[in-house]
Design a protein that fits this description.
alpha/beta; 5 helices; about 15% strand
Length: about 140
């Protein structure tokens, strides 16, 4: 399929403008819960363990890498591996940052529950304020 250059550029510009608009709209919704999450991360004595599945996991990997490269010790924790022994890499000094768009991802919820049972502090990032993860 061959598209003229001007069509390709017009589509690319439209996509970037839509994404920029979405980011600006989201920035207006930042509030107290965001500030509390930032404060908790800045106070962490250990590491930030980030977990998520699918696209949320890919975003989580990037967040963990960015935190590490900016001076906050962090690592990505794959939920299935966490449930099969790797949760041992997380301690009470750490924070678990759990990411799920729906807030109902079974693997993420299981990791959160297990981490809480160990006394690990949890921060939830979800697009669903009424979800199990959010509560």
């Amino acid at each position: 399929m061959h598209l003229p250059d001007d069509v390709v550029l017009a589509k690319a510009r439209r996509i970037l403008e839509e994404e920029a608009g979405a980011i600006l709209r989201k920035s207006r919704s930042l509030g107290d819960s965001f500030l509390e999450a930032v404060r908790r991360i800045l106070r962490v004595e250990g590491h930030v363990a980030v977990t998520g599945v699918g696209k949320s996991g890919i975003i989580g990997e990037k967040i963990a890498a960015t935190l590490s490269s900016t001076g906050t010790p962090a690592f990505f924790l794959r939920p299935v591996e966490a449930l099969h022994g790797d949760l041992g890499t997380v301690s009470r000094r750490d924070i678990l940052l759990a990411i799920s768009a729906s807030g109902e991802t079974a693997e993420v919820l299981a990791v959160v529950q297990a981490a809480q049972a160990l006394g690990v502090d949890v921060i939830a990032f979800t697009g669903a304020a009424d979800s199990t993860l959010a509560h």
